[in-house]
């Protein structure tokens, strides 16, 4: 009995398995899958379009209308090379459109509502033009409000302007800003006709804060500005970018170039002409250093090395805190000829250094003038006059009495006092209360009054060396007995030397021949 039940149950299980296998095969068949997919799609479509407020068998209407606000109006087709759009009114419009929900959803995501006005045929002035509406696919236009817009077109003008570059900030300490260099320095500006007259400048601003070197190859975008410095944003500038270079330099000063001389020309020679390539040089350095310079004397020429006419080139070396100089080299051209001597007669003597309350009088020579022998190039001596020679007697420290005072001679450059021909005068100094009679035995042979021991000094005091018509004898350096007797025909060769002016043989460059020395001594004498 149990065996029969087991066989029956097995048969039922076998039949169920065969049914499951048959269903799986059917579902896996391509045709069955397509049929099932179609049925599911139809069901979903019905759910979406079913109107729950109506009876279950009524399907909702497939289209609806909507209001679209603030749609931007866009101008197209305008000739922007010749016109500018000055007015577009209104700039936004209101649309009424219809379509399905799905179409509205797509349109909202893509923002495909487009309203345009065609300006391709518009001319200068005010115009009222129709609008054109482009809607997303599936939507239809019911109404656009307003349907027209007002536009105003202004003709464009183009003018050429200079570029102006401004700097801001301060460069490094002691540095100065030069004039900015712009490439190109002129540009074209395009603006509507009603704005062109507002343009005051074209340019920009560049920073030089703490700069110590030239700002070079700097690119700068240009802008147009009105007289109040406001930017004109509508301006079209061509080219709009330029290259700017701002020089950053040390302070500088132009100074006279003065040449110093050392040594002496060989015996018997004189300089007839001396030319230099520049008379001024430019020095660079801190401003406080430049303020201390009135001339530049950094060059010295050794006369002893000049044997004949020629040229030489010297380097101008910065000295002290001077940073640099320009030019860095100076060329000299000179002519050397045989020297000659010449007597300059009746030269006045300038007295300096007399103490307050004292009076001085030149007692010898009695004329108060002195003849001097000078030496130099023939052409230079030919042009030499009494106004070019100055004799100075320094009375500093001398009290009342009779004094033999040596003379200093100031001469033009390359003219010197003849060697072995020193000059002196006798000066009587009083305090204004007593008169002083010149001793008859005062012979200025050594720069001091005589002690009167000579028995031949009963006559008048001898004429000082280099005075009178016989001053030429001083160059020979011989004293005659007539001089001691007071005849005035000889020359005292032992009179005191006058500064550097009494140097033997040559003497070139020692008679205040440099421009600076001669000028300074002359000024002191005038004072």
Task: Describe the fold and architecture.
With 527 residues, the chain is an alpha+beta fold. 16% of the residues lie in helices and 40% in strands.
Label this structure with key terms.
single chain; 527 residues; alpha+beta; RNA Polymerase Alpha Subunit, Chain A, domain 2; 7-stranded mixed β-sheet; disordered C terminus; membrane; YbbR-like domain-containing protein
SSE layout and pairing:
Blueprint: H1 2-27, H2 30-48, E1 64-76, E2 83-89, E3 92-99, H3 101-110, E4 114-118, E5 125-130, E6 132-134, E7 140-145, E8 148-168, E9 176-177, E10 181-183, E11 186-192, H4 193-196, E12 201-207, E13 215-221, E14 223-225, E15 236-238, E16 241-246, E17 248-249, E18 252-262, E19 269-276, E20 280-284, H5 287-290, E21 296-302, E22 310-315, E23 324-326, E24 329-338, E25 340-352, E26 359-364, E27 369-376, H6 378-382, E28 390-394, E29 401-410, E30 416-417, E31 424-430, H7 481-485, H8 515-526
Parallel strand pairs: 1-4, 8-12, 18-21, 25-28
Antiparallel strand pairs: 1-3, 2-8, 3-7, 4-6, 5-8, 8-11, 9-17, 10-16, 11-15, 12-14, 13-16, 18-20, 19-24, 20-23, 22-24, 25-27, 26-31, 27-30, 28-29, 29-31
């Amino acid at each position: 009995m149990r065996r029969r039940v087991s066989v029956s149950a097995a048969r039922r299980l076998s039949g169920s398995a065969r049914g499951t296998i048959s269903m799986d095969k059917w579902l896996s068949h391509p045709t069955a899958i397509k049929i099932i997919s179609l049925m599911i799609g139809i069901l979903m479509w019905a759910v979406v379009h079913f109107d729950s407020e109506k009876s279950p068998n009524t399907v909702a209407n497939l289209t609806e209308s909507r209001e679209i606000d603030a749609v931007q109006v866009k101008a197209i087709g305008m000739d922007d090379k010749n016109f500018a759009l000055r007015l577009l009114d209104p700039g936004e419009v209101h649309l009424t459109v219809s379509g399905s929900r799905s179409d509205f959803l797509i349109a909202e995501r893509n923002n495909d509502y487009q309203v345009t006005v065609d300006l391709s045929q518009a001319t200068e002035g005010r115009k009222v033009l129709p609008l054109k509406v482009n809607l997303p696919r599936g939507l239809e236009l019911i109404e656009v409000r307003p349907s027209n817009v007002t536009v105003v077109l202004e003709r464009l003008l183009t003018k050429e302007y200079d570029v102006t570059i401004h700097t801001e900030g301060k460069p490094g300490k002691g540095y100065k800003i030069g004039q900015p260099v712009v490439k190109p320095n002129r540009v074209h500006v395009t603006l509507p006709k009603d704005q062109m007259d507002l343009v005051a400048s074209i340019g920009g601003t560049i920073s030089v804060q703490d700069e110590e070197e030239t700002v070079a190859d700097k690119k700068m975008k240009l802008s147009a500005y009105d007289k109040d410095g406001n930017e004109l944003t509508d301006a079209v500038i061509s080219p709009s970018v330029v290259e700017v270079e701002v020089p950053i330099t040390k302070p500088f000063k132009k100074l006279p170039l003065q040449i110093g001389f050392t040594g002496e020309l060989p015996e018997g020679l004189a300089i007839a002409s001396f030319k230099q390539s520049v008379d001024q040089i430019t020095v660079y350095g801190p401003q406080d250093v430049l303020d201390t310079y009135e001339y530049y004397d950094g060059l010295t020429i050794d006369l002893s090395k000049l044997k004949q006419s020629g040229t030489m080139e010297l380097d101008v070396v910065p000295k002290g805190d001077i940073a640099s100089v320009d030019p860095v080299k100076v060329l000299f051209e000179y002519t050397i000829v045989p020297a000659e001597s010449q007597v300059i007669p009746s030269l006045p003597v300038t007295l300096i250094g007399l103490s307050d309350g004292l009076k001085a009088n030149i007692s010898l020579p009695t004329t108060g003038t002195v003849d001097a022998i000078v030496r130099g190039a023939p052409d230079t001596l030919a042009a030499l006059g009494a106004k070019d020679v100055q004799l100075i007697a320094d009375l500093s420290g001398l009290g009342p009495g009779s004094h033999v005072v040596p003379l200093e001679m100031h001469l033009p450059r390359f003219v010197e006092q003849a060697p072995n021909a020193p000059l002196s005068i006798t000066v009587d100094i009083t305090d204004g209360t007593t008169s002083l009679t010149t001793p008859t035995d005062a012979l200025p042979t050594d720069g001091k009054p005589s002690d009167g021991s000579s028995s031949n000094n009963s006559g008048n005091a001898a004429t000082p060396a280099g005075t009178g018509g016989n001053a030429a004898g001083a160059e020979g350096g011989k004293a005659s007995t007539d001089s001691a007797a007071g005849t005035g025909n000889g020359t005292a060769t032992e009179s005191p030397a006058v500064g550097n002016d009494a140097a033997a043989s040559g003497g070139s460059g020692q008679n205040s021949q440099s421009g600076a020395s001669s000028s300074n001594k002359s000024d002191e004498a005038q004072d």
